[in-house]
C-alpha cells in the first residue's frame, strides 16, 4: 500500500487529495512543522528533505509533480483525472498541470519573500516578483472564470495540483482574492467536492495551525 508522508499545511495535501479522488487506499503518516520546516524524521526519508514524500514498497519518491505522474500512471488503471493525448483539451491539461508548480507556486514564494524583506516598491526584484505573481494569478483568474475546471469541463489532476497554492499557501503568504470572482467561484466548486473534503478531514487531523 502507498504511504503518504504528509507535512501538515503543506504541498503534500495534494497527494492525499489525489488518492481520495482516485479512491486509492493509502496509509497516512502525519508530521507537524517543527516549527516551520519539516521535522528530522521526515527529512531522513529523502534527500529533498521536504514534503510530499511517498513510499510504495521499496520505492521512495519526492516532488509533487513526480509523485503525481507516478500515481497517475502506476495506480490509475482507468486513467481517472487524466486527459488523453487524443482529446482536444490535452494541451490545456498539460499546461495547467505543470503551471501549478512550474510557475504559480514559485511566483508566489518569490512574492512572499520580497514582501518579507520590506524593500522599496521600485526595487527591481520587488517589481519583478510582483509582476510575475500578478501575471500568474491573472492567468488562473481568466481560466477558471471561463471554464469550470482548469482543463475545461472535466475536473483533473491539474486542479488537484494548483489548489494548495490558492488556499493553504495563503496562510503563509497572504494575498487578497478580493475581486477575483473567477477564482472565488472555482474555490467554492473545489470545496464542494467529496474527495477534497475527505482529504482535508484526514490530513488536517490534529492540525496545529500555521507556525509563526
Ligand atoms: N517542489 C517541491 C516543493 C516541496 C516543498 O517545498 N515542501 C515544503 C512544504 S510546502 C516543505 O517540506 N517544507 C519544509 C522544509 O523544507 O523543511 C514539491 O512540490 O514537492
UniProtKB/TrEMBL annotation:
Q: Which residues form a coiled coil?
A: none
Query: Which domain of life does the UniProt lineage start with?
Result: Eukaryota
Q: Name one GO molecular function term.
A: transferase activity
Under InterPro entries, the record lists: Glutathione-S-Trfase_C-like, Glutathione-S-Trfase_C_sf, Glutathione_S-Trfase, Glutathione_S-Trfase_N, GST_C, Thioredoxin-like_sf
Q: Name one Pfam family in it.
A: GST_N
Q: Where is the GST C-terminal domain?
A: 86-212
Record key words, sorted? Transferase
Q: Does the keyword Signal apply?
A: no
Q: Where is the GST N-terminal domain?
A: 1-79
By sequence similarity, the record places it as follows:
Belongs to the GST superfamily.
Question: This chain belongs to which protein, by name?
Answer: Glutathione S-transferase
From which source organism is this entry?
Answer: Aspergillus ibericus CBS 121593
